[in-house]
Fold each of these.
Amino acid sequence: MKAMTRPHRVVMIAIGAGIVLWCVFALRWDWLPKYLPLIGQGIWRTLWILAITAALGFFLSIPLGLAQAAGPWYLAAPARVFCTVIRGTPLLLQLWLLYFGLGSLFPQFPWIRESELWPYLRQAWPYAVVALTLSFAGYEGEVMRGAFKSVPRGQLEAAKAMGMPRFTILRRIWLPQAVQRALPTLGGETVLQLKATPLVATITVVDIYAVASRVRQDTFIVYEPLLLLAVVYMAITGVIVLAFRALEGRLPTRVA
Amino acid sequence: MIGALGLDSTLHLLAYSPPGWGANLLRGLGNSVIIALGAFGLGLVIGTLGAYGKLYGGPVTRDLLAVYTTVVRAVPELVLILILYFAVTDVVNQLLVAWGQSRIQISGVAAGIIVLGVVQGAYATEVLRGAILAVPAGQIEAARAMGMPPVLLARRITLPAMLSFAIPGLANLWLVATKDTALLAVVGFGELTQETRQAAGTTKAFFTFFLAAGMLYLSLSLVSGAIFGRIERWARRGQPGHGGGGR
């Protein structure tokens, strides 16, 4: 707590508190009670999309990283092309390609319209989930490639010498150590993924960003909904950072 | 497959001259590149000042810069773009009114460069701070011992020596800048993604146009990757063990 009580910090915290108080009392927040249920739903949907896409993307990134780090060329080359394409084009464009592009092609095929999936393909959120998942997998595949490569060879050779089957080596030795090395980057990527979620509002998925946009359209208030958005995203970022710090703290590391 | 995706019947829409929309897409790409260049340059200036402020500034400067980099890196770019776009327009107009001038509409290019530049500046501050820290302290101390003034020291020793450490991070930032220009489509500015959406909406050939725009972005990424590779080799010249020039 000593760092917070140095004189200049006390003054800065006081100024910061003053700005917050001014925002609370001088700006218009009378719309807040009316939209509170919508805001809650929006935050819930944002968190839900973040959790689903980060989890699915992470599982997809393991084979992508493995193929690039140790796979034969006919697996490594497609994985590398996938990562390059995903990382080389804007996510907004990928999202619109899937939703507007593929979405406009699907109705042309009668067998798609008659299939069980059709009720889902007519909604927006499957496209959002797919686009964000592929994007996360593309960025994370590159990280996992480096993480798999950075596990010392001796560990894998020792496991092989003990007669461990290849899948057990991956599950018990290779993957845990790679994930441990990738964990700090994974935390950063998850924050980036959170910051990518408002893009889904452009394809009519009602997340917290879409709720704020609606408030702005309904009430013609410019700054207050945007400030609320910034605060919400900063809070979620803080939670993610703390969660990953706790996760890293649980894993024993040897500092040389 | 090509027929199923509707590519064969819509490919002529990409032609350069008017029935096709190729000229619109290329104009959008040009706008994207201009904004990305401007934002990247502004980000470099802010980043250099910010890195020096974080390393050598007083306690207040350091804390303010810490707030700046933390907030900008925690809030989505889309939200920042909206806040800064309205705030910058508001502040400029209020200043103009205070000076007795009439209100103006800030051009999309200028607003895009300023907004993305402020975002880039936060990331560039961290990249450059790390790179300056990676310069061996003895070199800077030696220059100080020779009585070099700070600006000369920065120009002759610190900045050239840190360049090779900073280039990979800066290359990443440049790619982020090119891709972040797509976000300006949401505020309705006519860069590549927005032009593509207009063309696709008019012709109903969504898949073809978004695929074409994706190719343009991808080639921009690949070309700049190659260019940054050359710059990195040049920045590493004379360093042992990296296969740089001078051999």
Note: The first helix of chain A runs from residue 7 to 26.
Amino acid sequence: MTTRAAWAPASGMGWGTRVTLFVAILFLLCAWAIDLTPAALADLPSQMVTVLSFFYPADMAYGATRVWPALLESIQIAWMGTIIAAVLSLPLALLGARTLFPRIARLVKLISATARAFPEILLAIYFVPIVGLGAFAGALAIGISSVGMLTKLGSEVVESIDMGPVEAVQAAGGSRLLALRYAVIPQVLPEIIAHWLFRFELNIRASAVLGVVGAGGVGGVLLNTLRYRHFEKAAAVLLLTILVVLIIDMASGAIRRRLLR
Amino acid sequence: MSHLRDESEEHDTAAPRPLRPARNWALILGAAAAVILMTWWSARGIGFSLVELACNLPGGRRLLVESWPPDWGFFPRLLAPLLETLQIAVIGTVIGGLLAIPIAVLAARNLTPGVLVWFVDRNFMNVLRTLPDLFWAMLFAAAVGFGPIAGALALTVFTVAVISKLWSESLEAIDMAVPEAVRAAGGSWLAMLQFGAIPQALPHYVSYTLYAFELNVRASMILGLVGAGGIGMVLETQRSTFEYPRVTLIVLSVLVLVLIIEQISESIRRRLT
């Protein structure tokens, strides 16, 4: 009880208690609305164990013949999407920097904020009928939805640079374009490439999911194996995905650390 | 030009001209070659072609024309699924937020009770983060059946992955003087956490939980694509029958809801930190 006294404020109900109570009531209402009863919750662990037992042993033959190509396709989608986004976002990042282009920056930031609001899977729903079922639609969706975030992060990097070199180039008679080339780009490139790599890590996960709406990659394979209750095959999908994503995360993380050092 | 250079060389004797930083050409060319090779391999693999894109654009315009204006009359039927979507997000955030506390504490290098626990927990976190939210949704839909409960469970796992990673980093950055003082005064490990460590990082915890809630609202919109409840299930049926005016309406209402939640959450988070 003494510990309680130390936690609680001197008198009345504190902020923390009020917020906790609010969240607890909200939670109970929501749980009641979707029929998440305590009995159902208590039943979950045993249910999960039963289902998990179906996943063993993983069907690695299926993994080699069907999952591996789909996984490679997911990587290709993520890479192309990142390349598209990198190419489009580099000029936008420069234009979106308040310190360089005060007049256009606001407009560019507005556009990038709108692009960020769309989850890639919603974009893919529109791209699939336009360019047909398959990986190309996925790469476009990933590319477009990454432009927003990369533009925002890139502009922030550009805004944080030392303006000395820019002024020096211009004082020496260099044009604005030369200032960008010799004073801005060399300062921002390492950090911007690090952001590209980070986005590539995120895009791997995003592209893995796109198969659900028919935009290529490993997501469609997982959906099908689970739909037909081929749990050993689904296990192969999960194992290979985890492995590949872990390896890419580690490689990309190592490169990013080197770039930013 | 020549006398200018002579002058600078004279200066060199007094103060040597700074060396131009050496470029590691082997590394730069190697990286460029790797990027080009990877791009070529990817572009070929997915059939990337600008010509095809240009040829297909007219068809795309037809789709866009067809999908506008949205079918506003459909809106009343979206209200219940939208509400369910928010409920899924709340449940996932609350349960996931609670489960993330011990996982983050054990993964913080300065607080963890043992190296082995730290190692196991940290790798557990990394594996959790590799799978995207929709994969969890598919798994739970297969395990507990289609519906909102599968979605709530998927978001629970996703929330744990997000909060535990971010918060364990804030916990590692706290001032260790207070926790050490609690230990020195004879406090237990739990007391050290409760009075020394967690209060310092509590604003971060609340901030990350709100951030996870934003992500969850966004994710819960699409969970239904794989049968895990919410507005996504309506989206999936309308999409598969190519009712694009209705798809547009759903996408618009999802965006508006996401933006509203983000604004509220961001204004709270700004005040916290």
Note: Chain A touches chain B through 62 residues (CB under 8 Å).
